[in-house]
Amino acid sequence: MSGHSREGHGPVIIGFDGSQPATYAVTTAASLLAPAPAVIVVVWEADLGFELVDYSPAFPVTPSDTRGALEIDQSIYEMAQRLAETGAEVARQGGLDAEALAMAEDGTVADTLLRLAGERHARAIVVGTHGRRNPLHEPTGSTARAVVKSAPCPVVLIRYPR
């Protein structure tokens, strides 16, 4: 593979957010890549609960504030994991040997997918696009652009039909 330092032997990494375009990307990737192993990844924003709690210097933080923030983060993680399981089930129905993974955001969604692809020696990264085309810009979103630019493996872009 030209432009890549090594051929990936790990799973296909598929970003998933639960949207129709993401579901279409998983289904299409399965039809192209089954029976490959796959990781269906939902990226969630860690510490959002703490951002929602008001930490004003005028009002001291109480243990209940911290507990509330932790409960919010735990709920968000659990929702992300359920969403990843939903995506993995779609992938399994299409013939992929899929694992669900909810990952805390590490910078951007693209950064998180790229890091995981490197760690797992991914054979490919699949990213769905919403199919929007602005004549002044590329037909892909910022996540897809960033993944294509820096991926350690081949990238499959799956455009959602309009």
Overview of the molecule:
The chain has helices at residues 20-33, 48-52, 63-93, 109-119, 142-150; strands spanning 12-15, 37-44, 97-104, 124-129, 155-159. It has 162 residues and is an alpha/beta fold. It has one domain: Rossmann fold (3-Layer(aba) Sandwich), CATH 3.40.50.620. The longest helix is centred in the middle third of the chain and has 31 residues, at 63-93. The protein starts with 11 loop residues before the first strand and ends with a strand. 33% of the residues are buried. Mean pLDDT is 83; it is low at 1-6.
Name its key features.
5 helices, 162 residues, Rossmann fold, globular, five-stranded parallel beta sheet, alpha/beta, disordered N terminus
Short account of what is shown:
This protein is of the alpha/beta class and 162 residues long.
